[in-house]
Amino acid sequence: MSITLNDVRKDYDSQTAVLKNVSAKIETGEFFVIVGPSGCGKSTLLRMIAGLTPITAGEIKIDDTVVNDLPPKARKLTMVFQNYALFPFLSVWDNVAFGLKARKLATDDINARVKEALKMVNLTKLAKRKPRELSGGQRQRVALARAVASDAKICLMDEPLSNLDAQLRIKMRQEIYALQRKLGLTLIYVTHDQVEAMTMADHIMVLNDRHVQQIGTPSDIYQNPRNAFVAKFFGTPQINILPAKRSEENSHIVNVSSDLQIVLDEEAPSANLQIGIRPDDMQVKRADGVESNAVVKNTEFLGDETIVYATLNSGSDIHVVLPGKADFRSYEPIRVTANANLMFFDPDGKRIDLSKEAYVHA
Amino acid sequence: MLKSPASNPTAGVHSADTQAKIEASEKTFSLNAKDKYYAWLFLGPSLLILGVFIFYPMFRTLYLSLFLTNTVGKPTVFVGLQNYVNLLTSADYLNSLLVTMVYVLGVTAATIVLGLLLANLASKQLAGIGIFRTLFSATMGVSVSVAAIFWLFIFNPSTGFLALMSTWLHLPVIPWLTNSTWAMIAVIITTVWMNLGFTFLILFGAIQSVPRTLYEAASIEGASSRFQFFHITIPSISPTLFFVSIVTLIEGFKSFGLIDLMTKGGPTNATNMLVYRIYKDAFYSGNFSQASAESLILTVIIALFTLLQFKVLEKRVNY
Amino acid sequence: MDVVAKPKFGKNFGSYVLLTILALIVLAPFFIGLWTSFLPTMQIAKGNFLSTDLSFQNYIDAFTQTPILHYLGNSLVISTVTMFAQLLFCSMSAYAFVFLDFKYKRALFVLVLATMMLPFEAEIIPNFSTVKAMGLLNSYSALVVPFLTSAFGIFMLRQSFKQMPVELKEAADIEGLGHLQFYWKIVMPYNRIPLITLGAYSFLGAWNQYLWPMLTTFSNAYRPVQNGLRQLQSEETFNDWGMIQATAAIVVIPTLVVLFVGQHYFKSGANEGAVK
């Protein structure tokens, strides 16, 4: 089942909008991730799709039916909550069976479905336990089993992994992905974690500041962010965003202070720009006082790579990822260069498409 | 929509559609459109009972207190505040107010001090301490008439336990219950004993919930257990302490059973407290209007303390 | 941990002595009452407190010559009915205040809170007339009807209901549970512990009623145990101490047993809750 959002809007207290102009098309069987910082309205959007929160304006369609005015039950979907919303007084089995009983399915059917769902999430042996007798990961699986047991083909998940530790999160991420593919669910998944979004999504919707920033595939969003916010949100460590000015002598030349110089194929469109450079698109080497354009602050060795934190002579902080081990001491003068894989943003952070043939001098 | 369906037969399909949409939107806008019916269903019984047996009587009491009443409690002559004036100028009533105050303050102070002592001792990490915790809370299971019977025997001037003890030890026998001062003390002792189990449990719970690390940190600094009690325990449980004090105060003002069972307000009105007076004036003397005025004064006193209690609750509930 | 600061035995010994003395003082009235309940009244009257002439005669007399069992039965009926009624009506009201959306919700809640300020003891005059007009005097109903609900109970349950995770309601909405189902299938079982606490509180409250039953019941058929004991104490020759103590013991022993057993229960319940 597909879901269409048409110019959806949500106001609280009649005036203040929490979400505006949200439009998207989520295809049948798609893993769709809504991502954004906390407070961006992503959970609200999910609750509006579920029917738990009424929308102020716009249209939500499931397949070809407008569901704006349908109660949650009639929308035929399931939801997995951040705190799992397990009923503490019911056993694992009864928790999974709960929704099926509420929908008055036949007992045989319920038993078959619960059994199948528990098997699928490897909880068959724990069916009689109460939620408090389970570990965090097991509780998470019960919540998943609830969604699996339902015949609903749309599943909404609200930060389902944020209460788990890092190891378990990776494991559950894979399990959720496998389940979604196996059952052919249309899955809408809300998270603040860009890694989850990148690793699982077919399409990502980036929300910030009440608006949709961008919708696209993970690689599209990483490589072609529509603005500085999206560029910064994806990728660890974060992209370097540096203020730059068009050279007064040559409008094809853009300078990051006197530290970096970029030669463009075309004229720079405005006097002030921002330049985005991914940390692994930069190089560093030792340099003497004359050649150097930056000073090392500190380095972090991560095993397979090293992050060098440095300050450009102009005062901007940057970080560079180098493969393997790199030995730099604090306060050591260095020379930083970048390859041509750059992004340009206007002073408001909006992406400017400039020719990729840019050439970088140091 | 203003047109009747008959005048516009061709619009049938369309208007049915619109109609369905409107109905649906009323259903969701929001999920809780039907809530008001449920509200009546869920709240109705409680509101009815509270209205009939708590609210109405308060206004009725106020009304009666402004009249003279006949012997069956029907108002006869409007007298305004005369009943109140009579009460507040009557030495007898002022005495009742005074003895009630003495009783309430005595009971509260003693209950809190003893409850704290027991709770603090029971919080020590000792083997078998659980038995003491259970024993200290035992008086919670005692009802007012049982307590009265136990203590009436203990205080009995001829064959009572304390009288026997005094005789054995060749001490003068204390005239419990027959002397004004001692009667008050006897009633206070009995009340404190009854209160102790509950107060102990609440204060013990509060002490248990003080983070152990506070005590550990203090021990490392070399603070004595006495210092810890006054500088960690007391401040940490002060909201509970205040709460329990007010509950004890309020219950004290409402005391009736023990008075009726042990002293009947005597000797010579020495324990003739507010509720006992109301009962006597209304159901013995048939002076319903005066008893109503007394009731209202009692209500005001208790309402004030309850408001104070709400202030504490509010803090506790909302952190 | 004890390795670091092993308390000295002397210090502990002092604590034990103090604890024992205090326990003896607190329990003394029980011991004295229980002891005398086994003594013949003759011996008590003579001051022979340490007489060894012990027997169950007082208990036999109490059971056969007084309606003490009937009083206990009355109290049991009244307290049980009051408890279940309060659990039902208080939880329903609390549900309305937490999960329903309606006009004047806040005002009504303040009104309910306000009733907590009004002592029942100060309202006995009109309430007596009301109950009399309803024809309920000298019946179980007179003792139950005014206490079918409690503002305190409503307030207490509202606080617990409010602490339930919102997601439970949302999960129920997605499954299409109505208010009645959500109330009965989720809210009530979820709040077992506060409901048990309120139940205990209202049962004890009804059990310990004194003034109101004294006003509204005048026959042993409906008289609850508190007023029954008063009745015995005033009816019987005032000095039959042995039997009076026996009746008091008959009343208090079950409550003590319930309390001790219940405390164990509560403790394990609390532990379960803590582990989560």
Automatic annotation (TrEMBL), chain A:
PROSITE patterns membership: ABC_TRANSPORTER_1 (PS00211), ABC_TRANSPORTER_2 (PS50893)
This protein's record includes keyword Repeat: no
Keywords tagged on the record: ATP-binding, Cell membrane, Membrane, Nucleotide-binding, Translocase, Transport
GO molecular function, one term: ATP binding
Entry keyword annotation includes Cell membrane: yes
Occurrences of domain ABC transporter (ranges): 3-234
InterPro entries assigned: AAA+_ATPase, ABC_transporter-like_ATP-bd, ABC_transporter-like_CS, ABC_transpr_MalK/UgpC-like, Mo/tungstate-bd_C_term_dom, NA-bd_OB-fold, P-loop_NTPase, Transp-assoc_OB_typ2
UniProt name for this protein: Glycerol-3-phosphate ABC transporter ATP-binding protein
TrEMBL record, chain B:
Record's keyword terms, sorted: Cell membrane, Membrane, Transmembrane, Transmembrane helix, Transport
Pfam hit, one: BPD_transp_1
InterPro entries reported for this sequence: ABC_transporter_permease, MetI-like, MetI-like_sf
SUPFAM superfamilies, alphabetized: MetI-like
Subcellular location: Cell membrane
UniProt membrane topology term: Multi-pass membrane protein
Span of domain ABC transmembrane type-1: 97-309
Predominant location: membrane
UniProt xrefs under PROSITE patterns: ABC_TM1
Segments passing through the bilayer: 37-56, 97-119, 131-154, 182-207, 228-250, 295-313
PANTHER family documented for this protein: ABC TRANSPORTER PERMEASE PROTEIN, INNER MEMBRANE ABC TRANSPORTER PERMEASE PROTEIN YCJO
Protein family per UniProt: Belongs to the binding-protein-dependent transport system permease family.
Stated name of the protein: Glycerol-3-phosphate ABC transporter permease
From TrEMBL, chain C:
Domain ABC transmembrane type-1, residue spans: 72-262
Keywords on record: Cell membrane, Membrane, Transmembrane, Transmembrane helix, Transport
Annotated compartments: Cell membrane
Source species, domain of life: Bacteria
Membrane topology: Multi-pass membrane protein
Organism per entry: Lentilactobacillus fungorum
PANTHER family reported for this sequence: ABC TRANSPORTER PERMEASE PROTEIN MG189-RELATED-RELATED, SN-GLYCEROL-3-PHOSPHATE TRANSPORT SYSTEM PERMEASE PROTEIN UGPE
Keyword check for DNA repair: no
Transmembrane stretches, start-end: 16-38, 76-100, 107-125, 137-157, 193-212, 241-261
Pfam hit, one: BPD_transp_1
Keyword Signal recorded: no
Origin organism lineage: Bacteria, Bacillati, Bacillota, Bacilli, Lactobacillales
Protein name, per record: Glycerol-3-phosphate ABC transporter permease
InterPro entries: MetI-like (IPR000515), MetI-like_sf (IPR035906)
Annotated Gene3D superfamilies: MetI-like
Family that this chain belongs to: Belongs to the binding-protein-dependent transport system permease family.
